[in-house]
Amino acid sequence: MTNFDPGEMLAVAREEALTGKAEGGVPIGAALFTVDGELLGRGHNRRVQDGDPSMHAETAAFRNAGRRRHYRDTIMVTTLSPCWYCSGLVRQFGISHVVIGEARTFSGGHDWLAEHGTGITIVDDPACLSLMTEFVREHPELWFEDIGEEA
Amino acid sequence: MTNFDPGEMLAVAREEALTGKAEGGVPIGAALFTVDGELLGRGHNRRVQDGDPSMHAETAAFRNAGRRRHYRDTIMVTTLSPCWYCSGLVRQFGISHVVIGEARTFSGGHDWLAEHGTGITIVDDPACLSLMTEFVREHPELWFEDIGEEA
């Protein structure tokens, strides 16, 4: 189960986050891989771009991976600790492992996932951290809207 | 907070479920209302129709309600107990109450939501129950795919 490179996978998620930023959206990116490193789907938050509050980075990557019979051989990589919504996705579909860019600007349900058997790797990546820190400072209203909290 | 009629709201979700069934999809429907009974969005599972595993009934209704600053004055109604994915949605966005058609064919995260302060109403509606019972019997592979389990 450790036949994967968290850094290489995170680079794909970070690329997605930067695309989201360039589009004026919430700069969070994610991707779904097999444990052997095959890319199944990648995506980024689409709240601003599509006016779609249901498309967080993780759900966008999951959608873009299309229909699958099961997810026990998959890894979700995301630039930010997954919120409860995205943590629920991981638990329901039995995604085996989550690689997280950073969990400092926001800490979602990754401890809960670990308690229920999901593997968790927190990279604590400086690029992911500065991307989110800057975004939260510059667009607090958009950030709080994205997680359903009031500023 | 009890200024709403669970039966009237559930009728909308059930209509969505029947539309999904008619389309050959997973027959689960949902809708998001304000606590005063205003319909914000409605939808049904889109796995088959759009090849989209991320669109459960609840996430479809949430998407169709569009962007909102908060959800503390909203009620989600769904024909079936929400899975972990959809329960995570409810918790993350602070949806105040969930009305559930039935929780016999499947029981997701509604107890967990109740522990965290979400109001839960289980209607135990015979029409919702027979709709799901029949579906699970006739299309077990599709049902298990929809919840990420192996038959």
TrEMBL record, chains A, B:
Gene3D superfamilies given for it? Answer: Cytidine Deaminase, domain 2
Q: Which GO terms describe its cellular component?
A: cytoplasm
Q: Name one GO biological process term.
A: pyrimidine-containing compound metabolic process
What is the recorded name of this protein? tRNA-specific adenosine deaminase
Residues in CMP/dCMP-type deaminase domain copies: 4-120
What does the organism's lineage look like at the top? Bacteria, Bacillati, Actinomycetota, Actinomycetes, Pseudonocardiales
SUPFAM superfamilies, per database record: Cytidine deaminase-like
Keyword Cell cycle attributed: no
